[in-house]
Design goal:
175 residues; Fumarate Reductase Cytochrome B subunit; elongated; two-stranded antiparallel ribbon
């Protein structure tokens, strides 16, 4: 068995990471710019979310077909359990967040843009459902800050404190 994830898995992981940063920044920084730029920030946020959804589903399919490379030295069972739980939470978050966002945008009942294209919307708005999706989207987005932070902290602890190959398995190959 190989000691690293495949090049495709590594690329998807780091591309999702970059898209998450861009998507967060599009919402968190839009208030610093004049209002006429808000549609651009919204488009970047929505487009990033859709791209994250597609990549997370692809990553999940690839992961189901290709086992993880072993961690050397082998961690304690509780660490493995926590890692599986953390990855499950991250996967669910970055699939649910875009789905909630898409539901929100669709149910507003007016045109919205992703990737520069006008996307489909409900013939009649359903603000009750849109507001519910927005509430859960915001809640999970705020949770995602902490989950991603814990994920990064765990990777660094594995590398520097426990001195195993957890982090190295997901690093791009050197040429």
């Amino acid at each position: 068995m190989k000691d690293k994830y495949s090049g495709l898995q590594i690329a998807i992981h780091w591309l999702v990471f970059l898209l998450v940063i861009v998507t967060w920044c599009a919402m968190d920084l839009r208030g610093f710019f004049p209002r006429e730029y808000r549609p651009w920030f919204n488009m970047v946020h929505v487009s990033g979310g859709i791209a994250i959804l597609v990549l997370m589903v692809a990553r999940l399919i690839i992961r189901l077909k290709r086992p993880a490379p072993p961690i050397v030295p082998k961690p304690k069972p509780w660490m493995t359990g926590m890692a599986h739980l953390g990855h499950l939470i991250i996967t669910l978050l970055f699939i649910l967040l875009p789905l909630l966002g898409l539901g929100l945008m669709y149910n507003r009942g007016n045109p919205w843009i992703a990737f520069g294209l006008v996307m489909p919307h409900a013939a009649e708005s359903n603000f009750g459902l849109a507001d519910l999706f927005k509430e859960y989207h915001k809640l999970l987005a705020n949770l995602s800050y902490y989950v991603v932070g814990l994920h990064a902290l765990a990777a660094l602890l594995h590398h520097y404190l426990w001195k195993d190959n957890t982090l190295l398995r997901m690093m791009p190959r050197k040429k």
